[in-house]
Amino acid sequence: EVIAAVKGGTGSRFRYSTSIGRWLLYAAAPLESGPGIIRLAIELPPDPWISPELLSPLLGLLGALLLLTLVLLIPPVYGFSKAKRELTAALTGITQGAVPSIPIASDEELGQVARATEAASRAISQRIGDLESERNHLVTVLSSMSEAVLVTDSHGRILKVNPAFRQIFGIRGDVEGRRPLELVRNPEIQQGLDAALQQNQARELETRIGEKTVLARFSPINGERPPSGVVAVVHDITRLRSLESVRRDFVSNVSHELKTPLTSIEGYSETLLSEEGLTSTQRSFLEKVHRHARSLSQVVDDLFKLVQLETNAEPLTRTEMSMQILMTDVEKEFGSRYSAKRIQLEFESHLTSDCILGSEPHLRRVFANLLENALKHTETGMVRVAARSVGQDVVVSVSDTGIGIPHEDLGRIFERFYRVSKDRSRESGGAGVGLALVKHIVQLHGGRVWAESEVGRGTKVSFTLPQQSES
Q1: What is residue 31's predicted lDDT score, i.e. its pLDDT?
Q2: The pLDDT of residue 143 is above 80
Q3: What average pLDDT does range 13-27 have in this prediction?
């Protein structure tokens, strides 16, 4: 303390006084009035916890321990700090898309974290690569599609459109974030998108946009509730509808032009067959003329009827009617023809309600076409017509024991102009229109039609009709 005061400062020291045997606090400071210092000593309460003899060694030991601690801690602290910097740099690289190698070989927790981070980085990089490849593949597919594709988010805002969409609707510039109605001036398209988004169900509609006729299909993304967006695929079917219109007009005109001469041929041949004095050869020729004229007339009638139904030229009016009476009338109409061919014709009914809702002329045509087919393709055996109630529907089936239909043809027999085989059709007549007409009429009644068959054992054609509850 004296040395500190001499140097111009103040000093203090707490130590044990051997002269008086007590602990004293010594303090010294320079005099302000002149050269010299003043030194004071104040007695403090005795401190019995340590003796003067042990104080110096203890302080030395504490100093040594502190130095040893520093020596031991500096390397791991430096190593931890270095590893931390390397790990931080590696994580920064991952955020920028790099796959860093982290040089931490320790088996301690930090080393395990480093290895787990490096493995996660490789997995993330692989996944990003897969996603990028998938994205490029999807972009290529969308760009090469001739159909227009539009994708919206969960709020109905546009995320992406493909080049075909821009071409079909004449769109330029950015479209992301805009409402579809801003680009496609057709409220039905917007309503279809909104309905698919709100109801989480796929929808389909056909509409006109300017001079174009388009078929649009809307599908919710992921099937979530609510869905994360909607994908709309729009097909330009203008040319297809134009060709269908040309086909309908052609069939209608041809049918109309053929109907009059065919009716005359059928009538004249029937009149000639009633004449006496015909030779067997003449009668055979006339019967063949009459049979083929009648068959061709039926084909023309079916074609004309199909065109009328497709164009709504002949409205289908449904009324309450008796299924039992309809079946009885059909049995009377076809009974003699089946008897002439020695084929048994049976009718059976198991209905909870005899009342159905339908158009009698059209349903007679359904029965007529099915029974005509069964008669053509059945040489021996029987044909059974059965009606039964199933839930709210009436299921009608026409079963025969004829030649049957190959499995590969079964799914197409209701298509227009489809024939199982040319040889078979040439022998039995027909142009593949009768079953197409059956399907169209049944669908207009809100029903469905299907067929089951086994080659060599027969065919069963069934259809449904809505059953009218009796009040």
Answers
A1: 74
A2: no
A3: 77
Instruction: Please count the residues of the chain.
Output: 471
In the structure, what pLDDT confidence band is assigned to residue 367 with cuts at 50, 70 and 90? very high
Query: Residues 6 or more apart from 87 whose CB is under 8 A from it?
Result: 102, 104, 110, 113, 114, 117
Q: Which domains does the chain have, with CATH numbers?
A: 2-49 (no CATH), 62-137 (no CATH), 145-236 (3.30.450.20), 237-308 (1.10.287.130), 316-471 (3.30.565.10)
| Whole-angstrom distance, CA of residue 114 vs CA of residue 103 | 8
Q: Whole-angstrom Cα distance, residue 354 to residue 367?
A: 17
pLDDT at 374 over 70: yes
How would you write the chain as a 3-class SS string?
CHHHHHCCCCEEEEEEECCCCEEEEEEEEECCCCCCEEEEEEECCCCCCCCHHHHHHHHHHHHHHHHHHHHHHHHHHHHHHHHHHHHHHHHHHHHCCCCCCCCCCCCCHHHHHHHHHHHHHHHHHHHHHHHHHHHHHHHHHHHHCCCEEEEEECCCCEEEECHHHHHHHCCCCCCCCCCHHHHCCCHHHHHHHHHHHHHCCCEEEEEEECCEEEEEEEEECCCCCCCCEEEEEEEECHHHHHHHHHHHHHHHHHHHHHHHHHHHHHHHHHHHHCCCCCCHHHHHHHHHHHHHHHHHHHHHHHHHHHHHHHCCCCCCCCEEEEHHHHHHHHHHHHHHHHHHCCCEEEEEEECCCCEEEECHHHHHHHHHHHHHHHHHCCCCCEEEEEEEEECCEEEEEEEECCCCCCHHHHCCCCCCCCCCCHHHHHHHCCCCCHHHHHHHHHHHCCCCEEEEEECCCEEEEEEEEEECCCC
Q: Please say whether the beta carbons of 196 and 220 come within 8 A.
A: yes
Cα 23 from Cα 14, distance rounded (Å):
7
Question: Per residue in 297-355, pLDDT tens?
Answer: 877 877 777 777 776 666 778 888 898 999 999 999 999 989 999 999 999 998 888 88
Q: Report which of residues 329 and 426 the model is more confident about.
A: 329
The whole model's pTM is what? 0.52
Nearest Cα to Cα of residue 226 among 198, 202, 245: 198
State CA 147 to chain mean position distance. 16
80-109 confidence digits (pLDDT tens)? 666 667 667 766 766 666 656 666 555 555
Per-residue model confidence (pLDDT) at position 58? 67
